[in-house]
Amino acid sequence: DLWICIAPDGLPREVNTSYGMGSIFTGYNWLRFSNFSVGSPGDAVFKPSNACRDYYPRPQCDDVGVTTLDVYRIYGPPEPASLDNRNVGDILGDLAFICTQAATYAGKLIAHWKVNVSRAFGQYALCNYDGKANTCKGPPRQLLSVGKRSGQMMGTGASNGQCSAVTDAGFQYSLPLPAKCPPGEMPGSSPGMCAWGEPVNVRTVRASCLMTERGLLAACAREI
Predict the structure, then answer these.
(1) Comparing 165 with 138, which gets the higher pLDDT?
(2) What pLDDT score was predicted for residue 207?
(3) Mean pLDDT in the chain?
(4) Could you please report the per-residue DSSP string of 126-185?
(5) Best CA proximity match to 17, nearest among 32, 5, 31, 34
(6) Computed from CA positions of residues 83, 84, 90, 94, in that sequence, does the dihedral angle turn out positive or negative?
(7) What is the distance between the alpha carbons of residues 147 and 122, in angstroms, rounded to a whole number?
């Protein structure tokens, strides 16, 4: 929802925006304007910033190794048990996610997966359902690697932990479909084109088993 307060001179004084009410992502913005200067700001203000022009997306980590990750994902029917174009987290990284948005997912499932990935991690991509299918957002070259960040961007390490070995908040990963290996092919065997593959669903449990029956929600409330 969007509300704008227009003064008698025709200029906006306040803009209030609320979004996602009743869904997973909720929030609001409240802006108040003063000291107006009306006129063209010039073309220079629309030029890309240095961060966007030179550092987005960030280059892959300088690591040619391959590792097997234990990752977790919360989902529920009718979504299939798949990691294609999904965000996942290690045990600490997904815990950071659960504790901040747990009430939304209490009636769903938690799946434990093992997946082979290239350690040439790229910048984390947001992967969500767009009404038709799951998609990962970002320019094409960003979607050719497994993305990595610290849990909910709260941990230590440069660039949100993209190339860090350890963080105090765990890690979260994006698994874009364009980076997935063909069956039988290991990550890294096709540089720049194959970054993860052979996911194995180890176990799936009801989210309520951990969140309520094992007291995870109560622990989140005490510590966050």
Answers:
(1) 138
(2) 87
(3) 86
(4) -EEE-SSSEEE-S-GGGGGS-EEEEGGG-S-SGGGGTT-S--TT-EEEEE-GGGBPPTTP
(5) 31
(6) negative
(7) 5
Distances (CA, A) of 139 to 57, 88, 131: 8, 20, 20
Q: How many residues does the chain have?
A: 224
C-beta neighbour count of 94 within 10 angstroms: 22
Which residues, 6 or more positions from 6, have their beta carbon under 8 angstroms from its beta carbon?
12, 13
Contact partners, residue 179, CB within 8 Å, separation at least 6 = 143, 144, 145, 146, 193, 194, 195, 196
Encoded tokens for 222 = 């005490």
CB neighbours of 140 closer than 8 A, spacing ≥ 6?
178
Segment 34-57, tens digit of pLDDT: 888 888 888 888 888 888 888 888
